[in-house]
Amino acid sequence: MRRMRSFRAALTAAATAAASVALALTGTGAAQAATPLPNRVFAPYFEAWTGESPAALAAQSGAKHLTMAFLQTASKGSCTPYWGGDTSMPVAASSFGTDIKTIQAGGGDVIPSFGGYTADTTGTEIADSCTDVQQIAAAYEKVITTYDISRLDMDVEVDSLDNTAGIDRRNKAIKLVQDWAAANGRTVQISYTLPTTTHGLADNGVALLRNAVSNGARVDVVNLMTFDYYDNQAHDMAKDTQTAAQGLHDTLAQLYPGKTSAQLWGMVGVTEMIGVDDFGPAETFSLANARTVYDWAVSQGINTLSFWALQRDNGSCAGGAAADNCSGIQQNTWDFTHVFAPFTGGSTAPANDFSVSLAPASGSVTAGQSTTTTVKTAVTAGQAQQVKLSVSGAPAGVTASLSPSSVTAGGSATLTLATASATASGTYRITVTGTGTAGSHAATYALTVTGGSGHQCTAAPWAKDAVYTGGQQVSHNGHTWKAKWWTTGEEPGTTGEWGVWQDLGPC
């Protein structure tokens, strides 16, 4: 899958020491048995380079299991993996160790994923980068023992999918790891995440799995990336998921003739790209698609349900292009997670859940006047619950009030936005959050203020379709922003501390 921003350090990592290789391969290192994953698991991808806490986002979203993206070497030729290829983020307890323990203590777990689009196109996927099979195996084992996990994922696409030498090394290393795990009483699963057509794997994906069979490497799950088809065709993304998975099932039947149909479906995983994918609006995975895929996944008994990525599960850039931090469609925060989360170990919908929306979702007001919008809530599962409402994001000169500030799900409230004559003209995003026993949901209101006497911004307003290069400045929401690097479609104020836009302050 794509990683759109790279924070990989420029330093070259040292190769794994021979002593460490010997220690890992002889099984004398720590090898306590990790808790196996459920037979059916929802594990959305977590973008590990953003600086966010996976444990915090897991708790906020309700996703108990995460796929951690990605592990890769810092430079081509290295045998040492780092999170995001960043030498300041080694495979060690200091990198996500506390977060992973917190997730595990709550009954969940993580699936570290090697590879990804950036690694697979720069020669830093470890089996492409490292020519020593034993060192590759030692790196896999270090991740397993450091984080006490029971599954590793191999995200192999683009250039890596055609690197036959790397494919062979990877599968040989997987076989070594599986032998090591068996000798130490540890359960270790291997999943392969692969691109797909709407009717199943392309020839190079089939060849990768055939090589695994010939090397005696057990593949527990084949996880299809059911997006980014780039075929200029009309798409029903839910139907395409089903036909792609059926094609995979039929391929697996040829590779594993001794397995039953149910066992083959139990090897299937699917990963969606929620909202707008990299191709564009023609390939949009909607909430309705998510519900269809969920019901199908339960009925077929597939193993893994996932999406790219947890940080995209919000509607902060509705109508925009594919981005790392939002879905590009109108939705509440965590909507997709709430649809897929019950897949882990059950088939019933989550009890007592709700949604929040605004009608209208935008409006314009002359400075010194007020405007209102209706905050609507609805029961989406189970029974109605009490929802506490709050407002954030109101700029200086705008007073926000809610009446009432608490409703029973299914009820509504009025949001009043009062502006002062000194309010600066501009468009501001104001968020209404509803909090109940099922968690929180939010909706955003775009308030445009005109005729204000406040200080005016001199930089040109940000435009979502414009292309910006490093150093260019724009005005947005009453602030001046400077681009750190090339960007388009990423809204200032939504990309976080590590994002492309630097906040230069109010203007």
UniProtKB/TrEMBL annotation:
Protein name: chitinase
EC number: 3.2.1.14
GO biological process: chitin catabolic process; polysaccharide catabolic process
GO cellular component: extracellular region
Catalytic activity: Random endo-hydrolysis of N-acetyl-beta-D-glucosaminide (1->4)-beta-linkages in chitin and chitodextrins
GO molecular function: carbohydrate binding; chitin binding; endochitinase activity
Signal peptide: 1-33
Keywords: Carbohydrate metabolism, Chitin degradation, Chitin-binding, Glycosidase, Hydrolase, Polysaccharide degradation, Signal
CDD domains according to UniProt: ChiC_BD, GH18_PF-ChiA-like
Sequence ranges assigned to domain GH18 in this UniProt record: 40-347
Parts forming coiled coils: none
